[in-house]
């Protein structure tokens, strides 16, 4: 009498592993394409919000925010009453960043000693696909 062994033969095991490898090879690129599309969608939303902020600035001020310009502080007294800021600072209130804009208006915070508070990374200025971020 033959004893019947339970389990799989080596050939059957290799066939199953090969099939699983082929299936994984087909699925991994598809998953990568889905995550890439999601990142592109998030980047498009960031750029759209940035464009809306610039357009809101233009509709209120009747000019586009320049590359760099002087902005008067709200207390506007004494030395340093005006600050030289970039366009990104000028659109902060229209980009839902009023608290950060208020820090720029605070005369007790100078840029050199408080750069971590005054120059955080804004989500809309970089995309998830950007290799430098």
Question: Describe it for me?
Answer:
The chain has 133 residues and is mainly α. It has one domain (11-120). The chain has helices at 10-61, 87-90, 98-105, 115-118; strands spanning 68-72, 82-86. A two-stranded antiparallel ribbon has the order 1-2. The longest helix has 52 residues, at 10-61. The termini are far apart.
Quick take:
The protein is mainly alpha-helical. It is built from four helices and two strands; from the N terminus they run αββααα.
- Tell me the series of helices and strands, N- to C-terminal: HEEHHH
> Into which percent range does the helicity of residues fall?
40-55%
- Spatial ordering of strands, largest sheet: 1-2
Helix-strand makeup class: mainly alpha
**Estimated share of beta-strand residues:** 5-15%
Compute the number of structural domains: 1
Main beta sheet, described? 2 strands, antiparallel
| First-last Cα distance | 69 Å
Number of strand segments = 2
Unreliable parts: none
Silhouette: rod-shaped
What's the helix count? 4
């Amino acid at each position: 009498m033959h004893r019947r062994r339970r389990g799989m033969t080596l050939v059957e095991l290799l066939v199953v592993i090969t099939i699983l490898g082929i299936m994984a090879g087909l699925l991994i690129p598809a998953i990568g394409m889905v995550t890439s599309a999601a990142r592109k969608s998030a980047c498009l939303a960031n750029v759209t919000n940035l464009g809306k902020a610039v357009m809101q600035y233009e509709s209120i001020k009747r000019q586009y925010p320049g590359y760099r310009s002087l902005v008067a502080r709200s207390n506007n007294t004494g030395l340093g009453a005006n600050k030289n800021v970039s366009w990104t600072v000028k659109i902060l209130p229209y980009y839902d960043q009023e608290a950060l804009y208020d820090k720029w208006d605070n005369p007790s915070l100078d840029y050199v000693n408080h750069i971590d508070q005054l120059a955080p990374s804004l989500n809309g200025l970089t995309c998830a696909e950007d290799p430098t971020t």
